[in-house]
Amino acid sequence: MxxxxxxxxxxxxxxxxxxxxxxxxxxxxxxxxxxxxxIGFGGNPKDKSAVRGGPAFELIFNIHNLLxxxxxxxxxxxxxxxPMESPGERMGPKSxxxxxxxxxxxxITKHFGKKIKSFEPSGVVFDDDSVLKSELTLxxxxxxxxxxxxxxxxxLTEAGLIKIDETCLVTGTNNIYAAGDIAAIEGPKxxxxxxxxxxxxxxxxxxxxxxxxxxxxxxxxxxEHLNILCIMDTGNGAAFVFRNDNWAFAIPMPGLGxxxxxxWGQYAKLTKRGIIPRxxxx
Length: 282
Ligand SMILES: Cc1cc2nc3c(=O)[nH]c(=O)nc-3n(C[C@H](O)[C@H](O)[C@H](O)COP(=O)(O)OP(=O)(O)OC[C@H]3O[C@@H](n4cnc5c(N)ncnc54)[C@H](O)[C@@H]3O)c2cc1C
Description:
By secondary structure, the protein is α/β, with parallel strands linked by helices. The protein folds into two domains: 9-143, FAD/NAD(P)-binding domain (3-Layer(bba) Sandwich), CATH 3.50.50.60; 147-225, no CATH class. The protein is built from six helices and 13 strands.
């Protein structure tokens, strides 16, 4: 996110160099000894599965814990903003409850239910022209269809995502498959785009291509495997969040959870580069 003149507002989904700029801005505020930090995420009303709440929660809890470690937390205002009334509710009532109590415990102010209009050097401006003052704003936009898709003849949803069936076959075609964030997923109300769902869809699509090429009518669906699975790192621990059609729970993992998530990051990096083998199914 590089909106006009806002060296104070960054998207954490931007190019890698942005992470360095964010670190430098946090360091500068720590050096100053006080500040106002706002962290939030956007919604996509045309496809509610395309939101990224989890990483925004992780970010604010990590910054809280960093400031606490530096014994500066009381000098900072931390505010969480999102356009929906109840951000995080897709993770289920237990997770929502846990996040609520963490906001209260960590003295994080909530700013929910107002559409975001713009990011300015002074802070976040909302639809009603009210301003949330901030010296550093970190934001995760909701995802939408890739620009390349707009110029293609692929069938798209209103949100600009590729229409597929449950085998990942693109609607109206017999040999084009789409998997991951770029495809519109169908399923329960709480469905959300996540990394492991993208991988699952990729696997099912590959299987279905082989079946189709070998003349078999057997197909695998991604739909029955949909879930939300997330280890939400808080900097001093984590929360294990899970939701599917039958279960919705959140388990606090003080201490260990943080290292588990760090370990998972290393495992993902090393296995993706083929440096170490993957555990079957993981
Ligand atoms: C900040 C953040 C934190 C997240 N945390 C988690 C998490 O903890 N757990 C989880 O499960 N999910 C998480 N997600 C979601 C997860 O990252 C995505 O669901 C997942 O990466 C989707 O995979 P994908 O392969 O469909 O798309 P991507 O990972 O986005 O891959 C698409 C690739 O295509 C490339 N590309 C784009 N345009 C072109 C082009 N024109 N030509 C060639 N290549 C192109 C891109 O560079 C990219 O490498 C997070 C997302 C964000 C933004």
